[in-house]
Design a protein that fits this description.
Layout lengths: L2 H15 L7 E12 L2 H11 L1 E8 L3 E4 L15 E8 L4 E8 L2 E23 L7 E11 L3 E10 L1
């Protein structure tokens, strides 16, 4: 079964069971990961990225970054940064996950115009707001034996 046959089959199933439409684009995706061993190095990485939107979860609070707002600083009141998902104005997304015993996994997602992944975008309401939305890009790998498989997801601008 080729990709067009899979997509057509999904549309038939989606219509029958009232599932969301799936109208993906074909794109490329470059993923880079690194481990950092200091919360200050993590925050420096965020500042270099210049994010415009996203969320940050500290030990003592959560922070939503909207366009035009300044990236928060890590203080005694916030505690250490644990997790975050951010995107900059070029569409590069960054995920930060506290990994274990003082290290953080930093994953950078860069979409490219041409490639072998299917991409669609989902929209979620931001908690505590009826007007703000998060947009997440989902990337799907095309496997000739197993069909379309989830590959990665990240915040979109």
């Amino acid at each position: 079964m080729n990709i067009q046959e899979l997509l057509t089959l999904y549309q038939i199933i989606a219509a029958k069971h009232n599932l969301p439409k799936f109208a993906p684009q074909t794109v490329g995706l470059h993923i880079e990961s690194e481990y950092l061993n200091s919360p200050h190095k993590v925050m420096a990485t965020l500042e270099t990225m210049q994010p415009i939107s996203g969320w940050l979860s500290f030990q003592s609070c959560n922070y939503i970054l909207h366009a035009g707002k300044k990236l928060p600083t890590m203080t005694d009141a916030t505690g250490v940064l644990l997790n975050a998902e951010l995107v900059n104005n070029t569409g590069v997304a960054l995920q930060i996950r506290y990994y274990s015993s003082g290290s953080w996994l930093i994953t950078k997602f860069t979409e490219t115009p041409h490639g072998n992944y299917l991409k669609d975008t989902l929209k979620f309401v931001v908690q505590g707001s009826s007007e703000d939305y998060w947009h997440y890009k989902r990337f799907w790998h095309i496997d000739l034996e197993q069909g379309i498989l989830p590959y990665a997801a990240c915040l979109a601008r």
